[in-house]
Structure formats: structure tokens, C-alpha cells
């Protein structure tokens, strides 16, 4: 017994050492599970997170191809696909994209892992960011494609374009500042001076963070700005709500970019500031209206629904078929209206930050089985297939997770009117549960995929064919995010869509079957 305990402790120690070794590596390392459909990632080390910019919970459950974003025509993707299908090692250099959209070149080595029976159980991927080398190669090719005279002439043209650049900045109808590497204001356009009611004398030459009543002296903004020059990562839509001198309380949207010039223009930061106060007030009024209208409609609708239920119970036995059909249609439309109002109320709660979570442990397998069974028993013309078993307990609000599943299933049915099969897959992926809902309908084009989780967004071609408010997926994403999970879509237009979400596992229970 003592010897067995000693061996177990040694194995545990070895496991911890291996994990420390992987996390100490400068190379990004991932492990995928070949036994699960689509070979999802079940492990990634810290270097992989640093290289890609994604957090651990945003990586787990995805297939590695998500790093190629929309750049899908690369022949290396086919090489990787064939290597995984045939179970052999593969080394490629492929274009990948970080979470913020920045391109980086990835030297990727993929190797299969086999068990004692010779079956491939996992794949290990090792990646290195070789962007500097690839960029140098690309620059060399570009230099060879042009004469030295043209390069010199073009460089001089850029270096001599201060007046041209200045004229553009002055004519743009948006507040613009140009900073040097020490965040000192080199120039401010007329729109900035007039918008903030300040003079050039008390702006130019000043440190950005000392302007006015230190309105830009925000630690989070400082951290973002300090990364622009060394990393070339822009500041995108940073919101500042502040009581500004001379103009009062305003909401400003700040965007900042590195100016890509050489010579005297090197190491410059261009800051664009947009006043979105009116836009915010309009959005707030819209949210307030939706909240009030939804609550006001809820009370009479509840009464109407109750009266319809009474009519259904007391209707004469000899009532005509037409009467029964009309009554059923009224009941169905009332239920539909009730669902829309509930969604508007949910949206209002989310926007006001009052989304309520009643977290209790629940078995995700049972919840999925109940949700799918309810749809199959409801008389739908679609066949919903449920596959996979996780034996996982989730700490969360089971009613809200059920709402997410019901919404994804309803969408899958709505947007696949011709194909009558819906597949639901659940798997344990690292310390997460991954649930996928796949339909084989109209699909989603790439330009809409980044927008469909936005509130009230609906693609134009979908608006013309299918009814809806465009808030279901927004609510789903907010619920999953509140549970520390992620929700995403994979789709090709005309070939259906798969909506995936992950949830952290609280514990695994023993499978007694």
C-alpha cells in the first residue's frame, strides 16, 4: 500500500513537472482530441495564449482553423487536413490572425499521438511566430520587384508630405490629435479646438494626460496607448465619460493609431475623438422605451392569454372546426407575442446590467436530453439527433442555459426549412463542456458572422424571408458570457451553420450505466 501511494505521488509530481515544462516553453503548444468530432483543442499552454491574444476559455473547444479567420484559401490548410485525416506528421508555414485581427506567420508542426493499439488518440501542435522572418522575406521580394530609384523617390515623397498630411488632418470633421513618442501633442486640428472650446496655445506642446482637467488621464487608456508604438496595436473604440471643462458631461469614443511614416514622421500617434453623447442618449431612450413598453404590454397580454385558455376549456363540444382553428391560431400568436415581449424584457435587463443568475449545480446531459425531447415531442417536422455524453455537472442557471439551447434549436429549425435534420453534439473538452447545434440550411455569409450576436442585427437577406427581432443570439451570448463560457458560429453560406458554446465544468460524476 505504501509503495502504491509513493508511485501515485511520483506520477502526480511528474504530471505537474510536465505541465510546468509546457507552460515554460516559448513555443505555443496545443493538444487536440481526435476522438471528438472536429478535433477540438483540449489544452493550450501560456505561450499559445500570448502568441494568439486569445484567453484559455476562448481557445478550448475550437478547431485550430479558427486562427485563419476568413483567410481560407491557403493551400497549407489542405496539407494540414490531409495530414490529420491520414495520421502523419506535418510542418507548414501559414498565415494566422490574432484576436485583434493582427496577421502573424505561424510555423506549425503537427504530430499524432497513438495509444498501445496504434490508434491515433490526439494530435500535438507546436507553433512559433515567425512573422519577423517572413516579413523580411516579403520585403526582400518587394525590393527586388522595384528599382532603387523608385524606392528612394517614394520614400522622399512620404518624408516631404508633412503639409499634405497636415491639410488632411485639418479638414477632417472629427477631433484629431498627433502625439510624439512621449505623448506630447504635436498638432490639434480645428475640429478638436472648436469641439472642446480650447486654444492651440493651451493644447499643442502639452502632454495628453495633462490636458483640461486631466480628462484623458485614465490608467486603462494609458496602458493601451503605451502599446501602440512598440506593438503597432491600435486603440479601438475606448469610451470616456467625463465632465469636460467648458462643454460639460460628454461621452467620447477614442481611437488611436501609429502613423506609418519614416523620417520625421516616425513614432507618431494619431488620436481620433468622436462625441457620441447624443447617440448614447438616443440608445438610452430607446432602451427605456423598450423596457416600459414591454412591461406595459406584459400585463394585458397575460390577461388575454388567460382568457384564451378559459375559452379553450369551456368551448362547446359541437363547436365548428373553423371556430377551433381560429381559437388555436389566436393562442399560438399570443404565445409568440409573449415570447417576443419576454426577449425584449431580457434585453432590457441585460442593457441595464440587471441580468439575474440563480446558479445551482445541474447535470448538463439531462438538461440537453430534456430540451431535445421537448422539441421532438412538440410535433416539429424536424428530427433532432442528440449525441455525446459528458457526465458533467455545471454550476449555473439551468433555466437560462435551457433558454440558450431552445433559442439555438429554434433558429436551426427556422433557417433550415428544406433539410429536416438537426444535430446536437456534446463533449467534454479539457475542463469545459462543449455543445454544438448544427443545421444544414441556408448558412451565414462571412460578413454577417461577426455581427449576428449584436443587438437587433439581422442580415438583409434573412430579413426578407424570416421574421424576427434580431435579439435572440444577443441574449444567448450574454447568458453564456455571464457563465464564463464562449459562444461562436461556424458556417458556410448555403451549407448550414454550427453554433457552439462552452461552459466550465464544476465536477464529473460517475457514470453508473
Our measurement of the CA-to-CA distance between the termini, rounded to an integer number of angstroms, reads: 30 Å
Overall mean pLDDT: 82
Number of continuous helical runs: 17
Q: Spans of 5+ residues with little confidence (pLDDT < 50)?
A: 1-7
Amount of helix: 40-55%
Largest sheet: 5 strands, antiparallel
- Counting helices, strands and paired strands, the structural category is alpha+beta
Q: How many β-strands, per DSSP?
A: 18
Strands of the largest sheet, in order across it?
Answer: 2-1-5-4-3
Beta-strand level of the residues, as a percent range?
15-25%
- How large, in whole angstroms, is the Cα Rg? 29 Å
**Approximate shape:** globular
Care to describe what's here?
The protein has 513 residues and is an alpha+beta fold. The chain contains 17 helices and 18 strands. The relative contact order is 0.07.
Properties at a glance:
single chain; 513 residues; alpha+beta; 5-stranded antiparallel beta sheet; 17 helices; 43% helix
Amino acid at each position: 500500500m505504501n509503495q502504491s501511494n509513493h508511485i501515485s505521488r511520483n506520477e502526480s509530481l511528474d504530471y505537474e513537472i510536465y505541465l510546468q515544462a509546457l507552460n515554460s516553453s516559448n513555443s505555443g503548444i496545443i493538444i487536440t482530441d481526435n476522438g471528438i468530432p472536429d478535433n477540438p483543442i483540449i489544452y493550450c499552454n501560456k505561450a499559445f495564449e500570448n502568441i494568439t491574444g486569445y484567453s484559455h476559455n476562448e481557445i478550448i473547444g475550437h478547431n485550430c482553423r479558427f486562427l485563419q479567420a476568413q483567410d481560407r484559401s491557403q493551400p497549407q490548410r489542405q496539407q494540414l487536413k490531409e495530414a490529420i485525416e491520414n495520421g502523419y506528421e506535418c510542418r507548414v508555414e501559414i498565415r494566422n490572425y490574432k484576436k485583434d485581427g493582427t496577421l502573424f506567420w505561424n510555423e506549425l508542426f503537427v504530430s499524432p499521438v497513438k495509444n498501445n493499439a496504434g490508434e491515433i488518440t490526439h494530435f500535438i501542435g507546436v507553433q512559433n511566430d515567425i512573422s519577423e522572418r517572413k516579413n523580411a522575406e516579403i520585403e526582400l521580394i518587394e525590393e527586388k520587384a522595384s528599382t532603387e530609384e523608385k524606392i528612394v523617390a517614394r520614400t522622399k515623397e512620404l518624408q516631404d508630405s508633412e503639409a499634405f498630411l497636415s491639410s488632411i488632418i485639418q479638414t477632417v470633421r472629427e477631433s484629431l490629435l498627433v502625439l510624439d513618442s512621449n505623448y506630447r501633442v504635436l498638432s490639434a486640428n480645428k475640429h478638436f479646438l472648436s469641439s472642446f472650446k480650447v486654444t492651440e496655445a493651451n493644447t499643442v506642446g502639452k502632454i495628453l494626460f495633462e490636458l483640461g482637467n486631466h480628462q484623458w488621464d485614465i490608467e486603462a487608456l494609458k496602458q493601451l496607448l503605451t502599446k501602440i508604438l512598440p506593438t503597432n496595436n491600435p486603440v479601438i473604440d475606448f469610451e470616456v465619460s467625463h465632465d469636460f471643462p467648458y462643454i460639460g458631461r460628454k461621452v467620447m469614443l477614442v481611437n488611436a493609431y501609429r502613423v506609418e511614416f519614416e523620417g520625421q514622421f516616425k513614432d507618431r500617434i494619431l488620436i481620433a475623438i468622436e462625441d457620441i453623447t447624443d447617440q448614447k442618449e438616443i440608445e438610452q431612450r430607446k432602451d427605456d422605451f423598450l423596457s416600459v413598453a414591454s412591461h406595459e404590454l406584459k400585463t394585458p397580454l397575460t390577461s388575454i392569454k388567460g382568457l384564451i385558455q378559459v375559452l379553450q376549456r369551456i368551448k362547446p363540444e359541437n363547436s365548428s372546426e373553423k371556430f377551433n382553428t381560429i381559437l388555436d391560431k389566436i393562442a399560438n400568436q399570443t404565445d409568440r407575442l409573449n415570447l417576443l415581449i419576454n426577449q425584449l424584457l431580457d434585453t432590457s435587463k441585460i442593457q441595464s446590467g440587471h441580468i439575474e443568475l440563480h446558479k445551482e449545480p445541474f447535470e448538463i446531459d439531462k438538461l440537453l436530453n430534456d430540451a431535445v425531447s421537448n422539441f421532438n415531442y412538440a410535433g416539429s417536422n424536424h428530427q433532432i439527433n442528440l449525441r455525446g455524453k459528458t457526465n458533467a455537472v455545471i454550476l449555473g442557471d439551468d433555466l437560462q442555459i435551457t433558454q440558450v439551447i431552445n433559442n439555438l434549436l429554434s433558429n436551426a429549425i427556422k433557417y433550415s426549412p428544406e433539410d429536416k435534420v438537426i444535430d446536437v453534439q456534446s463533449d467534454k473538452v479539457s475542463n469545459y463542456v462543449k455543445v454544438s447545434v448544427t443545421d444544414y440550411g441556408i448558412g451565414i455569409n462571412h460578413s454577417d458572422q461577426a455581427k449576428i450576436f449584436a443587438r437587433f442585427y439581422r442580415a438583409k437577406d434573412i430579413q426578407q424571408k424570416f421574421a424576427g427581432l434580431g435579439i435572440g443570439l444577443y441574449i444567448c451570448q450574454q447568458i453564456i458570457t455571464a457563465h464564463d463560457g464562449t459562444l461562436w458560429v461556424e458556417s458556410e453560406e448555403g451549407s448550414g451553420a454550427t453554433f457552439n458554446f462552452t461552459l466550465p465544468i464544476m465536477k464529473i460524476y460517475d457514470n453508473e450505466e
